[in-house]
Structure formats: structure tokens, C-alpha cells
Design a protein that fits this description.
Elements (H helix, E strand, L loop, with lengths): L5 H19 L15 H34 L16 H29 L8 E8 L2 E6 L4 E4 L1 E5 L3 E8 L4 E4 L7 E3 L5 E6 L4 E7 L11 E7 L1 H12 L12 H8 L30 E2 L4 E2 L2 H9 L1 H4 L13 H13 L2
Parallel strand pairs: 1-5, 4-10
Antiparallel strand pairs: 1-2, 2-3, 5-8, 6-7, 6-9, 9-10, 11-12
The structure holds copper (II) ion (CU).
């Protein structure tokens, strides 16, 4: 190889790199791959994807075969003068207009049908979820179930869910790769996304529209549950936070008040903690992650987050009125982890 001329080596390197990149796409452990489809909508999208892939592959094979034929058949054989010139061929021209037209129509029909199906109004019995994109986290509200949560959206398997997607500030995009396409969250507009999930499990998502400093850290979790488990989750989320939070005089709620947390966070059951700027913390300990999917929800992450939100998440809009003392961090961590 080392003796090969330079262009050959360059081509070999390019081919090897592309092959590696292509193979990496086939890896099993790719939680954000759209190829691991898990909803009716993802199946429809897959159908369109495969149709387009096969048609374009066939077109590519035919075009390159013709090209190879022409290059070989009409190569320079050292003859004198210019070759015979040909002009115009009505049959050929009609064919190469009609065939591509037919192919484009064949791809357009299922594509348009899928686009409309994805944005269809909520079917009867669907679970309605309002998804609000905020810098840099997601709020999920279930208006008919009386539940508000953040960054971790639970849905039942086998039941249609209808997302209403809005934004509180700039343009975001809700993307659950294994369930359906990206859907923008545009200020002043409501977009819809409807699908029925198949298998239960934990899935990841990501904001897919650049929205500022911590865009890349604006992740989310989707938990698909059996219907009964989902109903149990709804009951738990609906309940107010545990304990008597106002009159208790306990150090946790007191630190939550004195730390200024109540200005931005809601803890239902504690009437003075009614802020709506940050995530609802009524059941924060029941969620798998904090900081919109970037830290596991445990004591160590909670301490890290409270010590320096902007250190964890650049630009974070959790602006604390004062830097918390280690004592406050500890008290608040214990308190927050009790909010199951
Ligand atoms: Cu975003």
C-alpha cells in the first residue's frame, strides 16, 4: 500500500472512512437511532424510508451501469477527428421525463399520507399531553389527567397519545427518534404529534432545533408503560407532595423558602411554593434524571446541581439569589430526594 500512488491511497482512505461511518450506524447500542422503531408512526415512516431507499438504489444502479457502459464503449481509441455527433431523440426524451415523474409521484403519495397521519387530530381515547419547550428543558402537562411534570414523559403502550407542542421562548423541536419525526415547538403556534407506542421501556429524546447555550443538553426521557402501571403513575403524580410542608418547621421546606426556590418552582402541597419558571418539583424524586436528562437523579448529582447549576449546564436559567452554603445544599438535597 505504501508504494501505491497518492490518489489511490487517498481513495482507499476515503472508502475505509465511509465504510467505518456506515458500519457505526448499524451498531445495536444506538438509543437515538430512528431505525429501532417503536410506534405506528415510526412504522409508516420506515415504509416511506425503505420505498425511497429502494427506488433511489435502483436508479443509482441503472445510471452508474449506463455511465460505465458509455465510458467503456466510447473511450478514446486513438481515432482521428471528432466522433459522429448525434442530436435529439424524441422517444428517449419522453422516457426520461416520464420515468422520473412516475418515480417521484410514487414516493410523494405515501410521504404526504404519512405527514398528515403524523399531525392528525387526537383520536378518540387518546392521552393528551401538552409539551412545552423551554430553555433548556421540557414541561409535560396532561390537561385531562391533572398532571404536570418535567423532562420525563410517561405514556401507556398500545394507546394513542396526542402531543400538543408549544414553546415558552424560542424555537425548540421535540424529537423522540424511535417514535416519530422531529416536531418543532414554535412560539405562538401549536404543532401536533400523534402516535401509538408498541413496546414498554425507557427511551431517550433530544431537542432537535438549536435553541441557545445548552441546546445540546436539552434531553428528555420517554417511559412507555403497561396501561395499569401508567394509571398508577398518574395517581402518584396527581397527589400533592408528602407531609405538612408549611407548618412543619422542618429544615427542608424552610431552606426551600429561604433559598428563593419558591420563586421559580412549584411543590404542590406547599402553597407558597408556586413558581412556574422552573420544573415542577412536587415529585422530582420520582424522575430518573435531573437537568433534563443529563444527570442521574441521586444525591451526588443533586448536590452538584445545587452548588452550581450553570457549571453543569452553561447558561442555565436557574439563577440563584445567593450561592448556597454546603449546609443548605445538604438540607435541600435530602428534602428534594424525599419528594417521591
Ligand atoms: Cu431546545
Amino acid at each position: 500500500m505504501s508504494n501505491s500512488p497518492r490518489p489511490v491511497r487517498n481513495v482507499a482512505a476515503a472508502v475505509a472512512t465511509s465504510l467505518l461511518a456506515a458500519l457505526a450506524g448499524c451498531m445495536g447500542d444506538a438509543p437515538q437511532s430512528t431505525l429501532h422503531k417503536n410506534s405506528d408512526l415510526a412504522d409508516m415512516t420506515w415504509g416511506v424510508y425503505m420505498l425511497v431507499t429502494w427506488i433511489t438504489l435502483a436508479v443509482g444502479v441503472v445510471v452508474f451501469a449506463l455511465l460505465a457502459y458509455v465510458v467503456f464503449r466510447f473511450r478514446d481509441r486513438g481515432e482521428e477527428g471528432i466522433p459522429e455527433q448525434v442530436h435529439g431523440n424524441t422517444r428517449l426524451e419522453i422516457a426520461w421525463t416520464l420515468v422520473p415523474l412516475a418515480l417521484v409521484v410514487a414516493m410523494a403519495i405515501p410521504t404526504v399520507r404519512t405527514i398528515f397521519a403524523a399531525a392528525a387530530p387526537a383520536p378518540e381515547g387518546a392521552v393528551k399531553i401538552k409539551a412545552v419547550g423551554k430553555q433548556w428543558w421540557w414541561e409535560f402537562e396532561y390537561p385531562e389527567l391533572g398532571v404536570t411534570t418535567a423532562n420525563e414523559v410517561h405514556i401507556p403502550a398500545g394507546v394513542p397519545v396526542a402531543f400538543e407542542i408549544v414553546s415558552a421562548d424560542v424555537i425548540h423541536s421535540l424529537w423522540l427518534p424511535q417514535f416519530g419525526g422531529k416536531r418543532d415547538a414554535v412560539p405562538g403556534r401549536t404543532n401536533h404529534l400523534t402516535f401509538t407506542a408498541r413496546d414498554t421501556g425507557n427511551f431517550v429524546g433530544q431537542c432537535a432545533e438549536y435553541c441557545g447555550d445548552s441546546h445540546a443538553l436539552m434531553k428528555l426521557r420517554l417511559v412507555v408503560q403497561e396501561e395499569a402501571d401508567f394509571q398508577r403513575w398518574v395517581q402518584e403524580q396527581k397527589a400533592p407532595a408528602q407531609g405538612d410542608l408549611v407548618a412543619s418547621g422542618k429544615p427542608g421546606p424552610k431552606a426551600f423558602l429561604e433559598g428563593g426556590c419558591i420563586a421559580c418552582h412549584q411543590v404542590r402541597g406547599n402553597p407558597i411554593a408556586a413558581g412556574r419558571i422552573g420544573p415542577d418539583l412536587t415529585h422530582v424524586a420520582s424522575r430518573g434524571t435531573i437537568g433534563s436528562g443529563i444527570l442521574d437523579n441521586d444525591a451526588e448529582s443533586m448536590r452538584r446541581w445545587l452548588r452550581d447549576p450553570e457549571g453543569v449546564k452553561p447558561g442555565s436559567l436557574m439563577k440563584l439569589p445567593h450561592k448556597l452554603s454546603e449546609q443548605e445544599v445538604e438540607t435541600l438535597t435530602q428534602y428534594l430526594l424525599e419528594l417521591k
